[in-house]
Write a structure and sequence with these properties.
With 152 residues, the protein is mainly alpha-helical. It contains two helices and three strands, in the order H-H-E-E-E.
Length: 152
């Protein structure tokens, strides 16, 4: 009887163990399936991330390229402006008074004196010269100041 009892107990424990083993095996299979599914999701997310980062990188490259092009254009414009200023200054330099032409410049200044003195009356008439009086200029010879692009 004791023997039968142990035999019965052993069968029940073995059956429970087999069931537990089967449950454990099912759980492990479920776990492996979940791991595989998770790895697939991770691959999809990694692919999407890589595509997104590639798009961002391309957009940044385009922005940087556009900035470089704009910078080069500004540099080119500034260089052209500087070259134009140099050309203009060289052109004006032809009329500079130098040691070679100072005698001629003095002679020209003495031959044609310029009087920068003038007066303007309330009506806008200009009277040239230091010693000119309004009564000395005939009415038909009066010059008028141009105001805001209009001549009256």
């Amino acid at each position: 009887m004791l023997r039968n009892y142990f035999r019965q107990e052993f069968k029940e424990t073995s059956a429970n163990s087999l069931a537990a083993l089967q449950g454990s095996k099912d759980e492990e299979e479920e776990h492996l399936r979940c791991m595989k599914e998770n790895e697939e999701w991770n691959k999809q997310v990694a692919l999407l991330r890589e595509q997104r980062l590639t798009k961002i990188q391309e957009a940044r490259k385009e922005i940087i390229l556009a900035k470089i092009i704009a910078f080069e254009e500004r540099e080119k414009e500034q260089l052209e402006k500087a070259e134009q200023m140099v050309r203009e200054e060289k052109e004006r330099a032809k009329f500079y008074i130098t040691a070679d032409n100072i005698d001629k410049a003095i002679e020209d200044a003495l031959i044609s004196p310029v009087d920068h003195n003038y007066a303007i009356d309330l009506e806008g008439h200009i009277f040239q010269g230091h010693k000119t009086k309004p009564t000395d200029v005939p009415p038909d010879k009066l010059e008028k100041v141009q105001v805001q692009g209009l001549v009256s």
